Amino acid sequence: MRLGADRHGVWCGLVRGTVMSRPGVTQTAAADHVTCVPHEDWWLATFYGSHPVRDAARPFDTYVDIATPCDWQGEHLVRAVDLDLDVIRGTTGRVWIDDEDEFAEHRSALGYPHDVVEHAMESCTSVLAAVQAGEPPFDGATAAGWLALFREKTAGGD
């Protein structure tokens, strides 16, 4: 569900149980979450809530896919190329970069262009620093507001 936009991007929400798929992968959302689709940046960020009951099954607090800038195809379809690298804040607060090995492998095997590699690495470095520092939209409060709005629209709030 498209919720609205702010200076960080367009915010969308998905309810727990939603089936999500991309080529080669199908999964079910373990918890309600909101995703920020930035206006021009090289990432997509998913934020899970911190409600003690509703969000107990959340896999992460924050999961940021490093990807090419998003291209909206109408109101409901977003296209971007996932560039393997992910910045994750786990439920314990630990922050790390995931899939650096996949990025290195695909960079060579798929022949990622030099400028794509450069943008991906720069984006990963800057997103990692922003998540660690708690800068918006990675501050918790920004996404919490959007998640609250999503829950109001889908379930009448808490």
Automatic annotation (TrEMBL):
<dbReference type="InterPro" id="IPR035930">
    <property type="entry name" value="FomD-like_sf"/>
</dbReference>
<dbReference type="Pfam" id="PF04167">
    <property type="entry name" value="DUF402"/>
</dbReference>
<protein>
    <submittedName>
        <fullName>DUF402 domain-containing protein</fullName>
    </submittedName>
</protein>
<feature type="domain" description="DUF402">
    <location>
        <begin position="26"/>
        <end position="135"/>
    </location>
</feature>
<keyword id="KW-0378">Hydrolase</keyword>
<dbReference type="GO" id="GO:0016787">
    <property type="term" value="F:hydrolase activity"/>
</dbReference>
<dbReference type="InterPro" id="IPR050212">
    <property type="entry name" value="Ntdp-like"/>
</dbReference>
<dbReference type="InterPro" id="IPR007295">
    <property type="entry name" value="DUF402"/>
</dbReference>
